[in-house]
Amino acid sequence: VGLSIDQVFSHIKWVEWIRERLGVDIKFPIIADDTGEIAKRLGMIHPAKGTNTVRAVFIIDPNGILRAILYYPQEVGRNIDEIIRMIKAFQTADKYGVAIPANWPNNELIGDKVIIPPAADEKTAKERLEKAAKKEIECYDWWFCYKSIQ
């Protein structure tokens, strides 16, 4: 969903411009928040910028849970690759019960592997080290284990 404090006609022209100039159809709804009320409630009006909104991205999962909020000032464009990476990371973490490292899938230390959440007790820590000895998972230590999901 897109939200802007612009009026409907501005949105129509924006969609037309993108279609004509870039050959891309906007397939998501765009909300015209011409009073700015919704933008204010979502924290998108920066106090130092008057009525100009910051560019915000809200990632909401299929259960309606807000998972991430990214705010971008007008001077800085959004990083679409990072937004897509975050969505894939949430999906992967949820599917496999793991944590996703920084810069995944190109993490400098473990590449495209994922982090197994730390052991909560000694028994689990011992089991982790046994799995590592059998090469079922990899560990730097009992508290930092990781695996491939490929």
UniProtKB/TrEMBL annotation:
InterPro entries found in the cross-reference section: AhpC/TSA (IPR000866), Peroxiredoxin (IPR050217), Peroxiredoxin_AhpC-typ (IPR024706), Peroxiredoxin_C (IPR019479), Thioredoxin-like_sf (IPR036249)
Annotated EC: 1.11.1.15
Keywords: Antioxidant, Cytoplasm, Oxidoreductase, Peroxidase, Redox-active center
Keyword Cell cycle among UniProt keywords: no
GO CC terms: cytosol
EC main group: oxidoreductase
Domain Peroxiredoxin C-terminal: 89-131
Keyword check for Membrane: no
Domain Alkyl hydroperoxide reductase subunit C/ Thiol specific antioxidant: 1-68
A single GO molecular function term of this UniProt record: thioredoxin peroxidase activity
PANTHER family: PEROXIREDOXIN 4 (PTHR10681:SF171), THIOREDOXIN PEROXIDASE (PTHR10681)
One GO process term, biological-process aspect: cellular response to stress
Record's protein name: Peroxiredoxin
